[in-house]
């Protein structure tokens, strides 16, 4: 596998790379970061091969409260236009969608906890999710959703959320859900967002979330497969 220069955007201290960092280290890729909660300094596009955009509790349209969002969306678009590999997770998937001109808005329900996603026929026959069946139980923590960007291929949906994943031009992968949590990062997410764990149709309790921590390991395996397949497409 070719060695890549991977840069990631982190929006809050409690939503880091999780097990993505393990995949990067195991495969010998280099890693740099912009911590937007500290200082919004973006790298030179020419200095990176991959851009990973992580999650966070803010909304893509909260530009008055988080003015760096404008610059972040511009940078994501520049990275896409430059042919970089881009991976967006949760808020990151919404930022990628906004950068591609799609609408991002409040979902009908918040989705927090371990819920199934259903892979589309195109996902099941495509390179990334091939041989993974038609359903995967993954972790969610989001209140917003997005329309599918023009020319993007829908890969997954859930009972709560129509657009859970898509691929754009074989190099841009958006995942509304989380495959990256470790037990430690899952605990950090719970600690950072405990006030959102209110009663709801698609909101699990903290106890139920932790009861299903056994799902972390298969999620990591799927994540590693997706990242390796995405790398092979470059």
From the coordinates shown, what is the CATH architecture?
Answer: 3-Layer(aba) Sandwich
Number of helices: 7
CATH superfamily: Class I glutamine amidotransferase (GATase) domain
Give me the side-by-side strand order of the main sheet: 2-1-3-4-9-8-7-5-6
The tally of structural domains comes to 1
Mean pLDDT: 97
Please state the structural category.
alpha/beta
Report the order of strands and helices: EHEEHEHEHEEEEHHH
CATH class: Alpha Beta
Description:
- The chain is an alpha/beta fold.
- The chain has one domain: Class I glutamine amidotransferase (GATase) domain (Rossmann fold, 3-Layer(aba) Sandwich).
- It is 30% helix and 26% strand.
- Strands 2-1-3-4-9-8-7-5-6 form a 9-stranded mixed beta sheet, with helices on both faces.
- Strand 8 and strand 9 form a beta hairpin.
- Helix 2 packs across helix 3.
- The chain is globular and about 45 Å long.
- The mean pLDDT is 97.
Structure in a nutshell:
The protein has 234 residues and is of the alpha/beta class.
Structural descriptors:
single chain, 234 residues, alpha/beta, Rossmann fold, 26% strand
Topology:
Layout: E1 5-10, H1 20-26, E2 30-35, E3 50-53, H2 68-81, E4 85-89, H3 91-99, E5 104-119, H4 121-125, E6 135-146, E7 153-157, E8 165-168, E9 172-175, H5 183-193, H6 206-211, H7 216-233
Parallel strand pairs: 1-2, 1-3, 3-4, 4-9
Antiparallel strand pairs: 5-6, 5-7, 7-8, 8-9
Helix pairs in contact: 2-3
């Amino acid at each position: 596998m070719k060695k890549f220069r991977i840069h990631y955007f982190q929006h809050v201290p409690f939503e880091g790379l999780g097990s993505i960092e393990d995949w990067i280290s195991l495969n010998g890729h280099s890693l740099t970061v912009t911590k937007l909660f500290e200082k919004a300094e973006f790298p030179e596009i020419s200095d990176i091969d991959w851009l990973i955009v992580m999650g966070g509790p803010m909304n893509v349209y909260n530009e008055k409260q988080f003015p760096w969002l404008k610059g972040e969306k511009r940078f994501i678009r520049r990275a896409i236009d430059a042919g970089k590999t881009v991976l967006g997770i949760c808020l990151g998937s919404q930022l990628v969608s906004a950068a591609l001109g799609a609408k991002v808005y409040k979902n009908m329900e918040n989705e927090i906890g371990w819920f199934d996603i259903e892979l589309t026929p195109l996902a099941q026959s495509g390179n990334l999710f091939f041989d993974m069946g038609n359903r995967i139980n993954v972790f969610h923590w989001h209140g917003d959703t997005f329309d599918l960007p023009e020319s993007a291929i829908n890969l997954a949906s859930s009972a709560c959320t129509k657009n859970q994943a898509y691929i754009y031009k074989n190099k841009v992968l958006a995942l509304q859900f989380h495959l990256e949590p470790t037990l430690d990062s899952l605990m950090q997410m719970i600690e950072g967002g405990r006030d959102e764990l209110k009663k709801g149709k698609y909101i699990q309790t903290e106890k139920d979330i932790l009861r299903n921590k056994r799902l972390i390991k298969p999620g990591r395996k799927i994540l590693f497969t997706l990242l390796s397949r995405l790398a092979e497409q470059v």
